[in-house]
Hints:
By secondary structure, this protein is an alpha/beta fold. It has helices at residues 3-18, 34-43, 58-66, 104-113, 144-153, 183-191; strands spanning 27-30, 52-55, 82-85, 89-90, 96-97, 116-122, 135-139, 157-160, 171-176, 196-199, 201-202, 209-214, 217-221.
Amino acid sequence: xxxxxxxxxxxxxAVDHIAPHLEPSSIVGVGTGSTANFFIDYLAEYRNDxxxxxxxxxxxxxRLKKHGIPVYDLNAVNEIEFYVDGAxxxxxxxxxxxxxxxxxxxxxxxxxxxxxxxxxxxxSKMVGILGEFPLxxxxxxxxxxxxGREIVKLxxxxxxxxxxxxxxxxxxxxIHNMDIxxxxxxxERLNNIVxxxxxxxxxxxxxxxxxxxxxxxxxxxA
Length: 222
Ligand code: 5RP
């Protein structure tokens, strides 16, 4: 199977998982990226079975609206039962690196609110130790150099994502060659740097369920 077919398979599995729980008042949290896009397309088949969605990016909001799915501001929503999103890397503890698409901050906010975070990923995203994929960090623009220097002190190689502006008007620094053998500690240390908005480690709040697309089928890991 191609990588896209694996992404489609996990996206469909996620919809199959949540569909029996959808109620007319349900709000679904929706992530960002190509796997999340497949999820949106399948979710649209159930658009009459739930109220609407909260989007983790402008691109996701646009795609949801194109399918006729109402998009709510998170502040207008009381409860999100499920948040479904892809990842750039996952380990067996369902700790993730996210933010390859630069939407990490809104993704982390929606994941924090959701009762159940379902990660959908093809098997290429499963790693032993996180960090082969560069770790994205969203940074207030004026703090770029300061944050870069602090990242070097933590042992990482910061690379400015040239020309990229997040939905929140900030910049992204991608950290290469960082030792992420202790993900929670790294997540917290990066959060403590002044000027950092969010980092792409989802370790303090990992996924609750991983639907992993493999050539033998979709594996559920909780
Ligand atoms: C966007 C993300 C995505 O979930 C991550 O980049 C995976 O993307 P894709 O599903 O296209 O492989 O974190 O900020």
